[in-house]
Fold:
Amino acid sequence: MAESLSTGSVPRGPDFRRVLVLDILLPFLTAFVLQRQGVPALGAYAAAALFPSFSILLAFVQRRAVDIIGIGVLLGIGSGLTLGIATADPRFGLVRAAPGFALFGLACLVSLATARPLMFYVARAFVAQGDPQRVAAWNARRGLPRFQRAMRRVTTVWGASALGEACLAIAAAFLLPGQIALIVEPVIAFGIIAALLAWTRAFQRNAPPVET
Structure:
């Protein structure tokens, strides 16, 4: 039976109003005001990081689903602030999403050496929604050459893009003024996420049918 080659239900993109307020505007204003009041840069960045942390938790409550990238961002915020304290370099406090993106990107590219690349499991989670029959149907397609090529291509694009985001975000944190980096870093992250979702939807629509 001919069936559309789908990578599964593409996850929804970020709520850009929430992103604008909690991930960009409020962190910038917080750091700006606190530094004008004489608070050291690292302390100001730590206070500013409370808003994107709350944004991730809010997204979790709204969607009732584990946000892997969100968890990575939270870990990145914590590790960045810890490194900032250990090294007395406040720029580490600006590196928020980069560690999560870097780990995800590396995991994607490393998984290309296996029979089932990482995006096979990510896509299955969205299309199957935990339903055993859908999981079984998805797994049954893993031996189809065209489906395998599609999963490898999606995994490659997401992995390379995630690593690219990490490099750009780290460069922004260490090369730009702190308050500018607070704006640029989330713009890079959410811009790349939006581009990846748009590309994945287009790839899903344009993919040729496969025989199952």
